[in-house]
Amino acid sequence: MLMINVGTPDQPTVESVRHYLRDFLLDPNVIDAPYIIRHLLVRGIILRFRPLKIAPRYKEIWMDEGSPLRVFTNRMTQAIKSEFNPDEIVIEYGMRYGNPSIRSALDLLKQQGVDELLIAPLFPQFAQATTETANSEVYFQLKQMGWNPMTKEINDFYEEPEFINPITETIKEKMNDNSHILFSFHGLPLSHVRRAKKLGKPNYVEHCNKTVLSVVEKLGLNDSQWSISYQSRLGPVRWLKPSTDSTVKSLAKRGIEHLVIVSPAFVADGLETLEELDMEAREIYTENGGGEMTVVKCLNDNPAWIQGLKSLIYNGFENPRT
User: Fold this and answer.
1) Cβ proximity of 308 and 165 under 8 Å
2) Are 265 and 40 in contact (CB under 8 A)?
């Protein structure tokens, strides 16, 4: 089985971030502009300035073992490996961008004699810029390798109890009677949402909404106790609204006593949760008069999530999408 996460720079340096962003942003599934426009935008503008801004942010959250996203994804992988007999199910992980690459993970799986491959993108909600590009890269690399195992894909798990139950419990642990829950999802350009609808593909916004409603129902929240927003905007295009920054500011001005932020689009902590939410959003909240604020950690190697993931893996082998 191949677990896939989005990726991370190798080092918190300008050059490493630039290399990572180059691979990430030149993917037509991420910026779906025509080839020439995409390269002019990325190489001519974004890569000249954004690495200078992003590298220090990575440095603030960097761990002794390396990039948080890689560290937590590896811990998750090691935890789920321990749940299976390695003679029956072999598990590796790869990053869509950066290291360890999808190709390197596939090489390891092939060397271990795998003949049935379950592709498991670690993205609860389907999006062109995550699930679709991850799956596409796997099939591209398999073709390059000349390797033809039987392939299956794990289903999106945005409202599956194996995902909803552990994330609900992590939120419940941080709540009190005065808490307001903000569900902050990774943002998408509106063009991605329209394109998916036109092509009859799963709707990211609907998936996000279903995740939230599933959690809200289990927590027993009323409509005044929660909000939804989208973070991580990039470039001048129109993005999903409301933004997390504006929502946090608004909630602070409303006099919310305890803001709890959770990001159910991610199962492993990285820049988006550790820096964007726990640092930037916290600063916005404080500057605008907000009270206490808590950022819920991603599921990472949470034991309940590992058991849920184990179930999703079994379901993926038994009831595959393809």
Assistant:
1) yes
2) no
Instruction: Report the alpha-carbon distance of residue 205 to residue 217 in Å, rounded.
Output: 18
- In this prediction, the residues of the chain whose per-residue pLDDT falls under 70 are 235-236, 319-322
Co-location of 227 and 286 in the same domain: yes
For residues 222 and 240, membership in a common domain is answered with yes
- Show the domain range for 174: 161-295
Dihedral over alpha carbons 193, 199, 204, 205 (to 10 degrees): 60
- Report angle CA 167, 172, 175 to the nearest 5 degrees: 130
Start-to-end Cα distance in the chain: 15
Half-sphere exposure of 219 (CA within 13 A, CB side): 27
In whole angstroms, give the CA distance from residue 10 to residue 100.
10
Instruction: Kindly tell me the burial class for residue 143, based on how many C-beta atoms sit within 10 Å of its own C-beta (0-12, 13-18, 19 or more).
Output: exposed
Task: Output the six-digit token pair for 28.
Answer: 């037509």
Q: Residue 99 half-sphere exposure, CB side, CA atoms within 13 Å? A: 8
pLDDT at residue 129, rounded to an integer: 94
Residue 91 to residue 75: CA distance in whole angstroms: 13
How far from 33 is each of 26, 30, 172, 225, CA to CA, in Å?
Answer: 10, 9, 41, 39
Indicate if 135 and 190 belong to the same structural domain: no
**CATH code, domain carrying 258:** 3.40.50.1400
Is the preceding omega at residue 166 within 30 degrees of 0, hence cis? no
Cβ pair 57, 271 in contact under 8 A: yes
The residue type found at 212 is: V
Look at the chain and report how many structural domains it folds into: 2
Is 138 in the same domain as 41?
yes
Residue 182: phi and psi, rounded to 5, are -110, 120
Centroid of chain to Cα 102: 16
Region of 54 (left: φ > 0; alpha: ψ -120 to 50; beta: rest) is alpha
- The residue type of 1 is M
Task: Please check whether residue 92 is in contact with residue 77, taking contact to mean a CB–CB distance below 8 angstroms.
Answer: yes
Beta-carbon contacts of 251 under 8 Å, excluding residues fewer than 6 positions away, are 180, 182, 227, 259, 285, 290
Domain identity same for 168 and 288: yes
